[in-house]
């Protein structure tokens, strides 16, 4: 995994993952959602009744579109943003002992992919969706958000540390 972290933490790959992540958030997902809130965007989770109402509201075509988005685009997206967070944490960790915190971003990505499997399963099984299935999907969604938020905060702190260190070194004339 060290090679992977070294690869994603290069300047070129950090910029690439940042630009592609931003493209997904600002352009691709808003365009494809057409104003419909997806289940995986609900920060406070969802109940069985909410899932049934949402999937009914999507209609058959909307459910197939959601399956396509989840299987393709929503698989690429967590790979991008988790690589961005992990790369920032790994590259700018103030101490070597903190670099393993980059794994938290990858764990969050695994929960994101697990959430996608749960949601695609519910979309494909509609209307035969059990309360247990929804509870599992909801757990994956909430856990994904917990890891994503934690990773985002750690990445932001690491980046801030890196910027301050760079500015200090530049001011004092020492090598970075």
Short description:
By secondary structure, the protein is mainly α. The protein has one domain (2-172). It is 80% helix and 0% strand.
Cα radius of gyration in angstroms: 19 Å
Q: Could you name the ranges where pLDDT drops below 50 across 5 or more consecutive residues? A: none
* Oligomer class: single chain
The count of strands amounts to: 0
Structural class: mainly alpha
Q: Could you say which overall geometry the principal axes of the C-alpha atoms support?
A: elongated
Order of helices and strands: HHHHHH
Strand content: under 5%
Q: Biggest sheet, open or closed, and with what strands and sense?
A: none
Provide the domain count. 1
Instruction: Tell me the span between the first and last alpha carbons.
Output: 25 Å
Helical segment count: 6
User: What is the percent of helical residues?
Assistant: over 70%
Average pLDDT confidence is: 94
What is this structure's SSE topology?
Elements: H1 2-8, H2 11-33, H3 48-71, H4 73-92, H5 102-125, H6 131-172
Helix pairs in contact: 1-4, 2-4, 3-5, 4-5, 4-6, 5-6
Descriptive overview:
This protein has 176 residues and is mostly helical. It has one domain (2-172). It is 80% helix and 0% strand. It contains six helices and no strands. It is elongated and about 65 Å long. The model has no long low-confidence stretch (mean pLDDT 94).
């Amino acid at each position: 995994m060290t090679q992977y972290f070294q690869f994603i933490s290069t300047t070129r790959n950090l910029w690439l993952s940042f630009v592609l992540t931003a493209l997904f958030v600002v352009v691709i997902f808003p365009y494809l959602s057409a104003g419909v809130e997806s289940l995986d965007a609900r920060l406070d989770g969802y109940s069985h009744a909410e899932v049934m109402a949402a999937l009914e509201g999507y209609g058959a075509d909307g459910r197939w579109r959601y399956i396509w988005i989840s299987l393709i685009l929503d698989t690429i997206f967590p790979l991008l943003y988790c690589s961005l967070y992990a790369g920032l944490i790994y590259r700018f960790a103030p101490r070597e002992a903190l670099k393993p915190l980059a794994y938290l971003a990858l764990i969050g990505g695994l929960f994101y992919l697990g959430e996608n499997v749960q949601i695609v399963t519910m979309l494909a099984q509609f209307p035969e969706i059990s309360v247990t299935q929804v509870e599992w999907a909801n757990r994956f969604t909430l856990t994904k958000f917990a890891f994503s938020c934690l990773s985002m905060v750690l990445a932001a702190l690491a980046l801030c540390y890196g910027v301050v260190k760079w500015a200090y070194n530049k001011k004092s004339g020492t090598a970075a």
